[in-house]
Amino acid sequence: MTRSLKKGPYVDERLLKKIAGKKPLETGVIKTWSRACVISPEMVGFVFGVHNGKVHVEVLVSEDMVGHRLGEFSLTRKFVRHGGKMQKELEAKKKESEITAAKSAKSAVEAKK
């Protein structure tokens, strides 16, 4: 359920104080635990360290992110690939075929010269 339009979006006041009067490129990573904070246009260009429960994940705010929440860009669960040993073998074969294709393309270019 979304927040009431009457109340307006939730923007953490402490975050706004941290970025007030500062330039995005000069400031470093701004650490925050406020994952529910809505990204406002004033935050564009800043790098926030959004806590995911374990570490602070760096999030560079762009114009497309305005209106979303900071927590959406700091995932709390780490995806581990499916497949195990068999999947690793398939990926190794695919990588080898890409390398041989690149070498053959490079030798064909050198032969033309």
How does this structure look, described?
The model has no long low-confidence stretch (mean pLDDT 89). The termini are far apart. The protein contains 2 helices and 3 strands, in the order H-E-E-E-H. It is elongated and about 65 Å long. It folds into 2 domains: 13-73, 30s Ribosomal Protein S19, Chain A (2-Layer Sandwich); 81-113. With 113 residues, it is of the alpha+beta class. It has a 3-stranded mixed sheet with strand order 1-2-3, covered by helices on one side.
Sheet having the most strands: 3 strands, mixed
How many helices in DSSP terms? 2
- What's the CATH topology name of the largest domain? 30s Ribosomal Protein S19, Chain A
Q: Find the CATH superfamily of the largest domain.
A: Ribosomal protein S19/S15
* Unreliably modeled segments: none
Strand order within the widest beta sheet: 1-2-3
Relative strand content: 5-15%
Give the overall silhouette: elongated
Can you name the CATH architecture of the largest domain? 2-Layer Sandwich
Computed Rg: 22 Å
Order of helices and strands: HEEEH
User: How would you state the average pLDDT, rounded?
Assistant: 89
End-to-end CA span: 64 Å
What is the total domain count?
Answer: 2
